[in-house]
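queue> pop job 88
queue> type: inverse folding (structure -> sequence)
queue> payload:
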């Protein structure tokens, strides 16, 4: 795997080749100014863009057409008819991670799933395909792991490759409930806003979250519509979302070095440190203490 970095003012591009025809691109603008990033990409590649922080937009036809990409959202771009050069306008304090993969390699990954993924079907093979979708909590964790890691050079190659494939798997993870696929819920913009409000509520009360019925009453939806709608928008149940969010928040608190394990557990609403440690290990496969010891400042 080959990694290259390029600085543009206070903006940074990091390009990592996972393998032939498969790349991870990281666009990091930590400046107070808008940055523009340009990269040539031909028609044989599919592009997946994930806005981790801030705001961005993609420019086409010399700036004549724009596609916005806001925080916590993703954008899939594919056009077999013409090249789609990457022209990214990144707002101050914004980060975007992109996966760029050749259609040949992509078809090989999903050869058994062609009926599920619309643009892989024979009738759509030569059609352009754009799709925007929210970043799920599970995807957010992988994206953050690609941004924050402490690994030896020999392990980094394997780690990035695994995370790239994990991110693709999570992106295309189909729902276990076939009835949700035909659910007209997302057509109702008012319901979408209520579900997003539900997400904000559970995050604001993560230490003492409301019951599902209390949450449904608070946003003015039936319990079934809350469950179905939340799963459609965020790709998981309310409490699975909250668990992922809490664990990622815990990891960030530990990263600061300002809190010990007990303090982080209490902030997240765990009555005992052992409960928090068990939850953290379930999510990340290691204990909070071992995670702290693995941070660069502790090596």
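queue> result:
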């Amino acid at each position: 795997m080959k990694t290259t970095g390029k600085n543009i003012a206070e903006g940074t591009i990091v390009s990592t080749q996972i393998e032939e025809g498969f790349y991870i691109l990281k666009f990091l603008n930590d400046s107070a100014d808008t940055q523009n990033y340009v990269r040539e990409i031909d028609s044989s590649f599919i592009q997946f863009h994930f806005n981790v922080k801030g705001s961005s937009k993609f420019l086409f036809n010399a700036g004549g057409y724009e596609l916005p990409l806001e925080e916590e959202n993703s954008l899939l771009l594919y056009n077999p008819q013409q090249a789609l050069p990457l022209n990214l306008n990144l707002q101050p304090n914004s980060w975007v991670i992109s996966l760029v993969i050749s259609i040949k390699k992509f078809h090989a990954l999903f050869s058994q799933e062609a009926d599920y993924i619309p643009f892989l079907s024979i009738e759509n093979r030569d059609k352009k395909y754009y799709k925007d979708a929210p970043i799920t909590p599970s995807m957010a964790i992988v994206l953050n792991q690609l941004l924050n890691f402490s690994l030896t050079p020999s392990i980094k190659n394997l780690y990035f490759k695994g995370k790239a494939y994990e991110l693709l798997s999570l992106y295309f993870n189909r729902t276990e409930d076939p009835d949700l696929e035909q659910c007209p819920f997302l057509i109702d913009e008012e319901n979408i806003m209520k579900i997003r409000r539900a997400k904000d509520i559970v995050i604001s009360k993560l230490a003492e979250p409301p019951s599902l019925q209390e949450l449904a009453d608070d946003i003015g939806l039936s319990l079934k519509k809350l469950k179905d709608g939340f799963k459609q928008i965020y790709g998981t149940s309310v409490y699975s979302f909250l668990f992922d969010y809490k664990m990622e928040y815990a990891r960030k608190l530990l990263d600061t070095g300002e809190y010990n394990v007990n303090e982080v557990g209490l902030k997240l609403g765990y009555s005992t440190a052992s409960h928090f440690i068990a939850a953290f290990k379930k999510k990340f496969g290691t204990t909070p203490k071992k995670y702290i010891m693995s941070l660069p400042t502790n090596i």
